[in-house]
Amino acid sequence: MRQYFNKWIRIFILFLTLGGTGSVFAQQTRVSGTVTDASTKETLPYVSYSITGSTLGGRTDADGKFNISLNGDYTTLKFSYVGYKPTTKVIKVGTAQVLNVQLQPEAMLMNEVVITAGKKPRYRNKENPAVELIRKVIANKAKNRMEHYDFVEYQKYERMMFSLSNLSDKFRNKRMFRNYQFLFQEQDSTKIGGKNVLPVFQQEKLSNNYFKKNPEKTKTIVIADKRVNFDERFIDNQGLSTYFDRMYQDIDIYDNNISVVSNQLLSPISDGAPSFYKFFITDTIKNHNPQLVELAFTPRNNTDLLFEGKLYITLDGNYAVQNAFLTVNKNINLNFVRALEAKLDFEKNPDDRYHLSKSNLIVDFGLSKKAGSGFTGERTVTFKDYKINNPRPDTAYRGAGQLVVVPDADKRSEQFWANNRPEPLSAGNMKVYGNLDTLQSIPSFKRTMDVVTLFFAGYKDFGPFEMGPVNTFYSFNGVEGFRLRLGGRTTPSLSKRYYFETYAAYGFKDDKWKYFLSGTYSLNNKSIYAFPQNYLRASFQRDTKIPGQELQFVQEDNFLLSFKRGENNMMLYNDFYRLDYVHEFENHFSYTLGLRKWQQTPAGSLYFSNYPDNGILGRTNQISTSEVSLGLRYAPHEKFYQGKIYRVPIIDRFPVFNFRYTAGIKGVLGGEYNYHNFMGSVDKRFYLSQLGYADVTVEGAYIVGKVPFPLLAIHRANQTYAYQLNSYNLMNFMEFVSDHYASINIDQNFNGFFFNKIPLLKKLKLREVASFKVLYGGLRQENNPALNSGIMQFVRNENGVPVTNSLNRDPYMEGSVGVGNIFKVLRVDAVKRFSYLNNPEVSGWGIRARVKFDF
C-alpha cells in the first residue's frame, strides 16, 4: 500500500513539473546577481532590467546588485544601460540561481560618436524632452532642498576610509612587509582600488544636526568621534582629518557647484546645466511609486570639470532626485584621479518630498591614471531620524560656534558604536583601528616615520627636542655670503605647558653671529601649535632681514630663496625684543597683543642718512622704536593643516578679515618716534563655476606721524625667480614706500576652461592663469624727503639716483598671464609691469615659475 501511494506521489510531481501552468515550482524562481562592465569589471549601478513577455522589471542597486522573485514560467531577463549593448540572459524556471551579468560597452560611449553611415542627428536642447525634464527639475530645486523647511533636524553618521590601493602581490610580498601582512586587506578585484589594499586611516563620526530657516542658523553637535590616531610627533591628527573632510565634502546635488577633491564640479541640475551637459531619457520605471524617469547625462566637453552618470527623477509633480550616480570622464582635467564614483539615495519625507538618506563617495588617486599603486579614499554618510518643521528654541543654536564636540566624544565604547552604526563594519574594517595601533609600536615603522618627517617637515625628532628645519641649515645672500644655521625646539614630550625654540647662525662674509631664543607658556594646557591657541611668548632675535619682505609658510633663509635677480645687498640687522599674547576662539576669531622693542641697523649698501647729499657725517647707525600692537583676525569656517612650522589654511569660499594697529611710543625703552599704524585686509576666494576661481585680496593702511622711511610701509617686492602670489613680482626690494596706500590683488585660475576646447592641446591638461595687481599710495609732505629735507633721505645708488621712491598720482600696476598644471605641478607666468618703468634697474617684464601641487 505504501509503495502504491509513493508511486502516485511521484507521478503527480512529474505532472506538475512538465505541464502545470500554475506550477508551484515556476512560482518560486529566484534570481540574484551583480551587473558589471565587461571591460573594467566595475559594478554598474541602477541598470534597468525587464522580464521578457511581461511588463515587470526593475533596476540594480547602487552596487550593481539585484535580487528578484518571479511568478510564472518566464525564461529570459533583458538588461539595458546607457552606453552599453543590451544583453538578454536565460534563466532556469523554478530554481534559485545566481546570474552575474557583464555588459559590453558600445562603440560610441557616452558622448563619443562613431559615424558608420548616414548623418547623425545633431544634439539640440530645443524640443528635447530630456532637456525639458531637467528644466523642470531645476525649476523645482528650491522646494526640494532642506532650506525649503522652517526647521530640520537629523542624525548623521560618517565613515571615512583611506588606503594604499592597487597593490600588486609582488609589492605585498616584499621583504619590508614581511612582518606587516596583517595590515593588508583583500577585496573583489573589480572594485575601485584593486585586489590588495592597505588601510592607513579610518574615522567614524556621529552627530546631531539642527537647521533653522529664519534667521538662518545651523548647529552640529558631535556626540561620538572614533579615528586612527598617529603619533603627534609625526602627524597632526586633527589636521589630517580636516584635510580629508575638505577633500570629501558632503555632496548636495541641488547645489549649483559640488566640491570634490578641492575642486568644484558643475552639478547636472545646476541652473546652467543644459549649456554644459547633454541629457538623454534612457528608461521609464513604472513599477516604482512614484514613477521614475532614468535620465543619463554626459559633458559636452569631456575634459571640463563636469560629471557624467544617471539621475532618477520622480514623476509626482515634485521632479525630485530619487537616486543619483555620478562619475567623471576619463579625460577630465583633474589631476591624479583614476576613478571617481558618487552614489546618492533619497527617502520620502512626510510631505512626500525627498531628503538625502545615504551618500557614498569613492575616489582612487595615482601618479599614473593607468597602472601602479595609488591611494583610495571612501566616505559614506548616512542620515536618519530626519524630522521636518519641528521647532526648537533659539537656545538650541547658541553656544561656542556652529560646531560643538561633547566631552569624551572620542571615548565612546565599542558597544555604543555597535548600537549606533547604521550598518555594521566588515570584519576587515573593524580591525583597522587595532592594526594601525600595533603598527605604530613596531620599531621599524617608527624609524621609517622618522625619516619621512625629516624629509617633508624638515625636523629630526630626539624625543623632548627636535632639530631643524633642515632647509635653513645652509643659505647665502649678498651681505652674509655663505651662511650656516643650526637650531631646534622642544616638543610636547618635554612639556605641554612650556616650549622653547632657538637657533644660531653665522655669516662668513660679514663675520657676524645671529641668534634667536623664545620661551612660550601655554595657557590652555594644549600644544601651542594646536587650535585654538592661547599662549604667552617672550623672545629675542638678532638677525638679518630684507626690508619689506614678508613670506608665507617659508623662512627667509630658506636655501631656495638664496637665488635672486639683480642687486640684493640692502639689508637690515634687526634686534627684536618681544612679548606676545595670542588668544584664539572656537569661532575662529582671534586677537594678539604685543610689546616690541626694535633696533634697526643698516647692512650692505643700505644706509640711513639725514642729508640729501648722502654725506658720511649725516649717516645714522641705528633706529630704535618701542611699540605696542593689537591684531584682530576673523576667519569664519576656516580649516587648516597644522604642520611642524606653519599652519597652512585650506582655502575655501569664506573670507578672512585682518586688522592690525601698532603704536610707536617715544621715550619708552629707548623709543625715538611716536606714530600710529592702521592696517586692514580681506582675503576671499570667488568660485566662478566653469570659469574656475579667483583669489582676491584687498588691503589698505594709514600711518599717522612723522617717521623715517624704514618705519613706513615698505611694499612687498620679489627679486627671486619664483612667482609669489602676495608680492609684486617685478618690483625691486625697497623700491616703493608709503604712509598710506590701498591695493587689490586678483589671481584668476580658469582650470583649463579655454585650453580644454582646443584639439590636441586639451590632452596636455594645461590650465590658464592670470593675475592683476594695483597699488595706490603716497607720502604726505612730512614723510617725503623730496619735500622735506629735514627727515631721513631715501637710499641712492652710486649715480646719486634714488632707489627708493614714493608712489605719486599714478598707481603701480603689474599683470601676468600664464600656464599652470605643467607636468601637474608647475605654473609659469609671463609678468608685465605697466608703470614706473623709468625707475633705475627695473624690468618691464619677466618669467616667473611656481611649484604647486593641486588636483
As a whole number of angstroms, the C-alpha radius of gyration is: 33 Å
What characteristic shape results from the CA principal axes? elongated
> Whole-Å distance between the termini?
82 Å
Q: Which strand-content bin applies to the residues?
A: 35-45%
Please give a structural write-up:
This protein has 4 domains: 29-103, Immunoglobulin-like (Sandwich), CATH 2.60.40; 129-441, no CATH class; 494-551 and 571-673, no CATH class; 676-854, no CATH class. It is 10% helix and 42% strand. The chain has an 18-stranded antiparallel β-sheet that branches. Strands 9, 10, 11, 12, 15, 16, 17, 18, 19, 20, 21 and 22 form a 12-stranded mixed β-sheet that branches. The longest helix is centred in the first third of the chain and has 18 residues, at 2-19. The relative contact order is 0.07. The model is unreliable at 1-26, 107-118 and 551-557 (pLDDT under 50).
Pick out its properties:
signal, CarboxypepD_reg-like domain-containing protein, 18-stranded antiparallel beta sheet, about 850 residues, 9 helices, mainly beta, DUF5686, CarboxyPept-like_regulatory, Immunoglobulin-like, about 40% strand, disordered N terminus, single chain
